[in-house]
């Protein structure tokens, strides 16, 4: 069973690296991507929060960390 979990974390790492690479190579529209993880921020979120540069997941984590 451990093999499956090892493989899963490997894939996750690969996906993260690819996301970061594509984030770097797409400098034409950096504001569409989360500055923290490189995920694409939904247009609805960009409309509601034009200054926002984090995806919903990272923004939630940031909010949680800010609270005591
Ligand atoms: Zn993010």
UniProtKB/TrEMBL annotation:
Keywords: Metal-binding, Zinc, Zinc-finger. The keyword Zinc-finger applies. GO terms for molecular function: zinc ion binding. InterPro entries: Znf_DskA_TraR. Residues 34-63 form the Zinc finger DksA/TraR C4-type domain. SUPFAM superfamilies: Glucocorticoid receptor-like (DNA-binding domain). One of its GO terms (biological process) is positive regulation of secondary metabolite biosynthetic process. It holds the Pfam family zf-dskA_traR. A zinc finger (dksA C4-type) spans 34-58. This is TraR/DksA family transcriptional regulator. It comes from Aliikangiella marina.
């Amino acid at each position: 069973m451990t093999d499956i979990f090892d493989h899963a974390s490997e894939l996750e790492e690969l996906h993260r690296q690819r996301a970061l690479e594509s984030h770097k190579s797409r400098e034409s529209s950096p504001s569409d991507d989360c500055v923290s993880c490189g995920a694409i921020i939904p247009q609805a979120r960009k409309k509601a929060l034009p200054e926002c540069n984090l995806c919903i997941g990272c923004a939630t984590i940031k909010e949680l960390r800010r609270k005591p």
